[in-house]
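User: What would this chain look like folded?
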Amino acid sequence: MCSAIEDVNSRVSTLRLLVSLLPTVNRDTLWYLLTFLACVAKHADDQPDHAAGHSVRDMSALQFP
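Assistant: Here's the prediction, encoded as structure tokens.
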């Protein structure tokens, strides 16, 4: 990264500002996507795929059409 922000508080403030500048529809989509991904991560180890021996955590984007 060319100009990394070292201070964590500055990073959070910058990210909040950038998200607030998004159009409402994009901000809502980002919120739903992050909420969904948090739920997936929370349940990643709940139901491993016994047939393949892999869990959701082991999947990559290349496995999807």
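The mean pLDDT is 79. If you want, I can go into more detail on any region.
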